[in-house]
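During the reporting period the student researcher (J.K.) took over the structure-prediction task from the postdoctoral fellow and processed the backlog of single-chain submissions. One of the processed entries is reproduced below for the supervisory committee.
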Amino acid sequence: MLIELIYDYDQRTHDAQFESPAARHGREWRINHDVDRLEQKLSAARSRLQGQAQFAAE
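J.K. obtained the following structure tokens:
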């Protein structure tokens, strides 16, 4: 998934030189949305790992 996000970001950045301001706003919103979604997944994974570490320590 991370590789897909990086590729999408690279492609969108390349395409940005030919887009209108409205399209740029939409592209930036999508990138921010993707980053937020990835941060949520990382946070959930971190919480799971911390829970597993606490369980293993007990």
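The committee noted the following: The two ends are 33 Å apart (CA to CA).
J.K. will present the remaining backlog at the next meeting.
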